[in-house]
């Protein structure tokens, strides 16, 4: 049996494990179970792929998505590993061939959809072969509280019952304590060793801005350092996905829509192009991204507020899986809070479920409105303290200005009270600004003492004040029409016993691109030419083999080639990400490119 370290170096081309990969792998190799919580891009796959190769028999991976299976199997095969997958996309004769390979011990890893695994025929087949490990990927799908819930996952505890000698590992990228406990209970993993990795993704720069001409903001972002990069843009509605993709194409970008309303073959084609072409932007609802194994996504943009911090963390985590610098930009507005609040209230969930969802929405809005380090707040939500500001989020790079908003807050709260605590923000702001529109006159709100007392602020500025008062608990949003209501917290402020500082709206100028990411400014002009030549070589090899470019080599590996400038096979093998199999097949081609460029000292 090869050691995990030998497999890491010679098959995958890496010299050392990330924490806690080795401890997880050692647990499985010893025949014990594990539950692993590790962020996207943290190296979860190696935690079960290496034990599957180190132990006798075939490893079985349960994965909920066909696209993820195909991506991982292609990458494994390119690394010289005998891997296959069985799902609804595989033709019958190919299924028979793969099952024959399994029976004759000719597979190292087999990927199965949960519904395929649970078929009696499949379980009977697995009883006849030597198995090294069971890996349950995307294990949060077992949680009935999550939006990725899959009913088939609830039956996976049968693995413990039918294959008690085969170690099991359940893996997920994001799960709070409640979900972790649910995973352990439903999969019979309560006695398993639990590994909770750091949630920190230091290579991702977090930026959050209020909406203010959203398309202009998006265009500034894309033109300010993201030209030629692959990215994902999330929208809350299908209509917004379609219109945003169309507009981006008009601006000269390659943008593809993705949502459940599109035909299946269109979705598949757009996903294929995203994986295999450079410079493609996918505009999508949250239906896109789970299990997408593309390592070189340089940015993730949210054009609407995510429903929770967990959803935000999981979706932004699809950027920079290769560890290279990436950006997560969120543009949000008060209308997002109203829209998501209405979705929560109109859902068929229990009152307890709605209460939890409201709490998650408030936590997400709180992350948007803080004036301190975003990363500290994000990690604190997952009970992982960060002892000092990160230096790589918008509030660290450009400390937000604050102002004494005590008087403005009192005016707003008084107006909410005098209008009856049943109107939404737009109407209250109209009254404050002295509007005499039909609705204001209909309710005689033009006769109130608060009518017109807030003309010194624009509608945009008042909406910012409303958002921050909601975050700080001075206001609640209630009812079908999302009316504003005062809370008990208001009393000291209304009595002017305390003061209140709020974040100032940012000036309407393009945000500084300090420490922007995804470009090659850290490479000299000669190195940038070499970088592009290596990318062109990779693209040609990928097209010849019918695989995405990153399956040949990740961007991080190409960057390692630029920096080390290897001239021999042994020097190329020393570059992180170059293993024995890839050296044999691709080494001479890349060395030929590298030798065309002089090696500077």
Automatic annotation (TrEMBL):
GO terms for biological process: DNA recombination; DNA repair; DNA replication; SOS response. Gene3D superfamilies: HRDC domain, P-loop containing nucleotide triphosphate hydrolases, Winged helix-like DNA-binding domain superfamily/Winged helix DNA-binding domain. Pfam families: DEAD, Helicase_C, HRDC, RecQ_Zn_bind, RQC. Its EC number is 5.6.2.4. GO terms for cellular component: bacterial nucleoid; cytoplasm; replisome. GO terms for molecular function: 3'-5' DNA helicase activity; ATP binding; DNA binding; four-way junction helicase activity; hydrolase activity; metal ion binding. The keyword ATP-binding applies. It is an enzyme of class 5 (isomerase). InterPro entries: DEAD/DEAH_box_helicase_dom, DNA_helicase_ATP-dep_RecQ, DNA_helicase_ATP-dep_RecQ_bac, Helicase_ATP-bd, Helicase_C-like, HRDC-like_sf, HRDC_dom, HRDC_dom_sf. Residues 214-364 form the Helicase C-terminal domain. Keywords: ATP-binding, DNA damage, DNA recombination, DNA repair, DNA-binding, Helicase, Hydrolase, Isomerase, Metal-binding, Nucleotide-binding, Zinc. Residues 25-193 form the Helicase ATP-binding domain. It catalyses: Couples ATP hydrolysis with the unwinding of duplex DNA by translocating in the 3'-5' direction. Signal peptide: none annotated. PROSITE patterns: HELICASE_ATP_BIND_1 (PS51192), HELICASE_CTER (PS51194), HRDC (PS50967). Its cofactor is Zn(2+); Mg(2+). Residues 524-601 form the HRDC domain. The keyword ATP-binding applies. Belongs to the helicase family. RecQ subfamily. This is DNA helicase RecQ. It comes from Microbulbifer okhotskensis. The lineage of its organism: Bacteria, Pseudomonadati, Pseudomonadota, Gammaproteobacteria, Cellvibrionales. The gene is recQ.
């Amino acid at each position: 049996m090869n050691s995990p370290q030998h497999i890491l170096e010679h098959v995958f081309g890496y010299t050392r494990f990330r924490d806690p990969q080795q401890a997880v792998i050692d647990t499985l190799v010893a025949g014990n179970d594990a539950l692993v919580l590790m962020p996207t891009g943290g190296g979860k796959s190696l935690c079960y792929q290496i034990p599957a190769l180190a132990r006798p028999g075939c490893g079985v991976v349960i994965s909920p998505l066909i696209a993820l299976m195909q991506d991982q199997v292609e990458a494994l095969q390119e690394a010289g590993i005998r891997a296959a997958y069985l799902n609804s996309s595989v033709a019958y004769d190919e299924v028979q061939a793969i099952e024959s390979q399994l029976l004759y011990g000719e597979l190292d890893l087999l990927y199965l959809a949960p519904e395929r695994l649970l078929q009696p025929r499949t379980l009977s087949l697995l009883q006849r072969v030597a198995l090294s490990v069971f890996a349950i990927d995307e294990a949060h799908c077992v949680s009935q509280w999550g939006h990725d819930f899959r009913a088939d996952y609830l039956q996976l505890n049968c693995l413990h019952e039918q294959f008690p000698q085969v170690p099991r590992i359940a893996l997920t990228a994001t799960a709070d304590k409640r979900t972790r406990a649910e995973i352990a209970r439903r999969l019979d993993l309560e006695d398993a060793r639990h590994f909770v990795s750091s949630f920190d993704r230091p290579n991702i720069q977090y930026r959050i801005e209020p909406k203010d001409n959203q398309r202009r903001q998006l265009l500034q972002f894309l033109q300010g350092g993201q030209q030629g990069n692959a990215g994902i843009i999330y929208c809350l509605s299908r209509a917004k996905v379609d219109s945003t993709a169309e507009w981006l194409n008009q601006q000269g970008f390659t943008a593809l829509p993705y949502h459940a309303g599109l035909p299946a073959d269109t979705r598949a084609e757009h996903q294929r192009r995203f994986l295999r072409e450079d410079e493609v932007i996918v505009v999508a609802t949250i239906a896109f991204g789970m299990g997408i194994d593309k390592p070189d996504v340089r940015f993730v943009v949210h054009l609407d507020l995510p429903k929770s911090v967990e959803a935000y963390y999981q979706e932004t985590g699809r950027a920079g899986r290769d560890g290279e610098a990436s950006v997560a930009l969120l543009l949000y507005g008060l209308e997002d809070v109203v829209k998501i609040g209405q979705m929560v209230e109109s859902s068929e969930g229990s009152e307890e479920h709605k209460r939890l969802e409201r709490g998650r929405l408030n936590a997400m809005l709180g992350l948007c409105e803080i004036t301190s380090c975003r990363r500290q707040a994000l990690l604190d939500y997952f009970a992982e303290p960060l002892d000092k500001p990160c230096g790589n989020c918008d509030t660290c790079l450009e400390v937000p200005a604050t102002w004494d908003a005590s008087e403005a807050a009192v005016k707003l709260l008084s107006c909410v009270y005098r209008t009856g605590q049943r109107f939404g923000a737009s109407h209250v702001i109209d009254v404050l600004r002295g509007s005499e529109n039909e609705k204001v006159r209909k309710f005689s709100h033009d006769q109130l003492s608060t009518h017109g007392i807030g003309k010194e602020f624009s509608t945009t500025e008042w909406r910012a004040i409303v958002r921050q008062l909601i975050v700080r608990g001075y206001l609640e949003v209630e009812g079908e029409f999302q009316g504003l209501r005062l809370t008990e917290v208001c009393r000291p402020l209304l009595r002017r016993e305390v003061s209140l500082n709020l974040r100032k709206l940012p000036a309407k100028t393009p945000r500084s691109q300090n420490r922007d990411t995804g470009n090659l400014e850290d490479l000299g002009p000669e190195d940038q030419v070499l970088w592009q030549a290596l990318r062109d070589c990779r693209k040609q090899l990928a097209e010849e083999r019918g695989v995405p470019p990153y399956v040949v080599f990740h961007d991080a590996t190409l960057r390692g080639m630029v920096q080390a400038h290897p001239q021999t096979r042994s020097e190329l093998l020393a570059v992180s990400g170059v293993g024995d199999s890839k050296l044999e097949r691709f080494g001479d081609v890349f060395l030929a490119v590298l030798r065309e460029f002089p090696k500077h000292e």
